[in-house]
Amino acid sequence: MEIGLVELSRLQFGMTALYHFLFVPLTLGLSILVAIMETVYVMTNRPIWRQMTKFWGTLFGINFVLGVATGITMEFQFGMNWSYYSHYVGDIFGAPLAMEGLMAFFMEATFVGLFFFGWDKLSKVGHLVITWLVAIGSNFSALWILIANGWMANPVGAEFNPETMRMEMTSFFEVVFNEVAQAKFVHTVSAGYVTASLFVLGVSAFYLLKGRHTDLARRSIAVASAFGLASALSVVVLGDESGYSASQTQKMKLASIEAMWETEAAPASFTLVGLPNMEDRETHYAIHIPWVMGLIGTRSFDTEIAGINELVAENEGRVRMGIIAYDALMEIREARAAGEEIPSQAKFRFEQNSDDLGYAFLLKRYVEDPRDATEAQIAQAADDTIPYVPTLFWAFRIMVGLGMSFILITAYFFWRTSFRRMTYPKWSLYAAVGFIPLPWIAAEMGWLVAEVGRQPWTVDGMLPTALSASYLTVGDLLFTLFGFALFYTVLFVIEVKLMIKYIKIGPTQDVDSTIAWQERHVGRLSTRRNQSPLAEPAE
């Protein structure tokens, strides 16, 4: 297979995934925030909270619809662009996707209609239940997708069947409760909550700067800052869990994130910045923080984190064991084809080395039969297990740096909301508006870390990416690549224009009932209503 076809297939899938992930975090977070706002409305019966629910719910609906349109396309690509991957692991990978469609997406899509059109047809409590079901459905969608994705990084609960030449599920329980999948899920949804919180915070800050919808904006900031701070802190904690999980299941990925070429004495240092060089296998101008990486990666003072060079040497040994497994597999298949009894020795050799069979498949990039590989080709296959270190190194640091800034801004607004009577200096409101796009950048960086860090594997240690793609022509791939790019760009432009349009319009529903309620309670609210949300210059 031409490597160019594989790279084009990867580029196409990566582009569609990146586009799709522009919509996912906001859907996850806004669904929960809208449910929280409606819960407050049901508890207090104050129309302003119903108005807030409908306004932010409208923005959620726009994002939800366009997110669905981009997500469906991705699932079709498994059959179009990655047919061998679908054949090889379809029994395992297809199960979570089916559960996502039946259990999560149908629930989400069904109840989102009731959310928008059931306000005057359902009781307050009944509509609140619908809103929470929409939120739960959104998060269930993420759960099943990330179970599938987590299995690709840590393929548990499955084994290779030499008769069918496919992976087959042995334990659905292990697939669902895969430690990598669970860590990915909680980390991803927390990042979505941060994204939505900063979106609500930024739009509300825009309203305060314009002097419009101030009651809605101040209450929205109160909810978003509290929820966003809790979420931003949880992202750090859950990210630490992901790092510890990677030290057990994806050692090469962890070493590459750190650009750790050589194994260090425990506990390993954390590289703050540096310039990783793939050719020299060295990180130039590196600034290290002692002990930090060892504590994050191993949670101990005496456990080493293997360096890239040591892991490459280990993987070269696994390639050699994989060749033994491949040879035994071919002997088994030849015996079956001839209708003969399977040689017990071949069966034993395969069982002993089957865990390394995927490493022999890495040689398919250079030679048709891995048993014919030269020493140079075996060494090159081992070198191929190193992902592109500079991308991982910098994507991780951008993600972490932005994550720390999200804690600071949400903590600041939470403090102003709780202890400064919801007054905010203008500079902080401008900063909140400027922060709106940053969570998406952090989320995309996180996606790059997860997916680039798994290369050269589609399924870690089992199926190389170079073998997973469909046999298509370059022309087919270029045509669909540009077609998808054009289609997704149009959808993205539509999303941005619709969002800006409805943000500029502002809340239009329940305005009269909100004003009437405030007029009835003017005495009790006079102090807070007469207070400007903008802090005095001296503050």
What's the total helix number? Answer: 21
Report the biggest beta sheet as strand number plus sense, adding barrel if it closes: 2 strands, antiparallel
Number of domains: 3
Mean pLDDT: 88
> Low-confidence parts, pLDDT < 50 over ≥5 residues?
none
Indicate the percent of residues in helices: over 70%
Terminal-residue CA separation: 66 Å
Order of helices and strands: HHHHHEEHHHHEEHHHHHHHHEEHHHH
How would you write the strand order of the largest sheet?
A: 1-2
Rounded to the nearest angstrom, the radius of gyration is 26 Å
Structural features, described:
By secondary structure, the protein is mainly α. The chain folds into 3 domains: 3-250 and 387-511, no CATH class; 264-298, no CATH class; 308-383, no CATH class. The chain has helices at residues 3-20, 24-44, 47-80, 83-117, 124-153, 172-176, 179-210, 214-249, 251-257, 292-298, 308-337, 344-353, 357-361, 375-383, 389-419, 426-434, 438-452, 465-468, 474-505, 511-520, 522-529, and strands spanning 158-161, 166-169, 270-277, 282-289, 457-459, 463-464. The strands form 3 sheets. Strands 1-2 form a two-stranded antiparallel ribbon. A two-stranded antiparallel ribbon has the order 3-4. A hairpin with a 4-residue loop joins strand 1 (158-161) and strand 2 (166-169). The radius of gyration is 26 Å and the shape is globular.
